[in-house]
Amino acid sequence: MHALPGEPAHKCSATEHHRMAVLMLLLPLLLVISFGRAETCYWPNGDTAPDNYHACPNSKVCCSAGEACLSNGLCYGANLNIAYRGACTDKSWPIAECTRVCYTEIDNGWANLYPCPNNTNQVFTCGAPGWASSVCEADLGTVTWPSGDVSYAKVSNSTTTSSTASSTSTTTGATGTPSVRESPTDAAESNKSSDNSVALGAGLGVGLGVPLVLMSLFLFILWRRSKKQVAQTYATPAPVMVEPKGSYGHTMTVGSELEGSQPPVRELQG
């Protein structure tokens, strides 16, 4: 349309002004959504993991939102004090980038790592959520916890942000006894005990809060629990109801050997 002499080239009606104002308000939000959208995570069989699984910082490994990522590719859930293998942002599950722990034994969801009574130190049994006694009896497969340094990071509940612990790590020495090494910002020193002991840090990584404090107790609980205690659990189970992380459709239970502690990553130890 051509403008008449003396008139502006274009007249904006009140409606058009309103539309432009709305678009200007929405533009920043659309940009945030575009850049903050989480990557899709996959189980070993190629199925898509639930939306609450997010990629760990600078990694293709996916852990459940709000839970800890371990540098060895596993995840850690503080509520039940348990390590597990989560999902991967790459459908092909490249072995160098996504840990293939319990990869074939449980390919349609995350895999918990249980310290069964017949296992030696640092050996865990693969299992889906359920009674620990049933998992140990089924004995789908075992995995040996890898030695070396293990650092922690937390999967944010938001798809746009994530935080990492400064430089907290777990070290497994030549004897196979795990210990926690803290960063310079952690003022408290580890307390050491002998014979299958762990050094428990009082200040574990800034930003992870209670989950990592509980995490520091994970190794202690696992390695200090005797086979006799686990056997007693089988005789008088006191189940804890577990809300599935997404891939299993109904509520499961975990045996009392996991009481007071808590995915698909994944102390240590899966």
TrEMBL record:
Residue ranges, compositional bias (Low complexity): 159-177
Top-level taxonomic group: Eukaryota
Keywords: Membrane, Signal, Transmembrane, Transmembrane helix
Annotated region described as Disordered, given as residue ranges: 159-195
Ranges of biased composition (kind: Polar residues): 178-195
Residues in the signal sequence: 1-38
Repeat in keyword set: no
TM stretches of this protein: 198-223
Tagged with keyword Transmembrane: yes
Protein name: Mid2 domain-containing protein
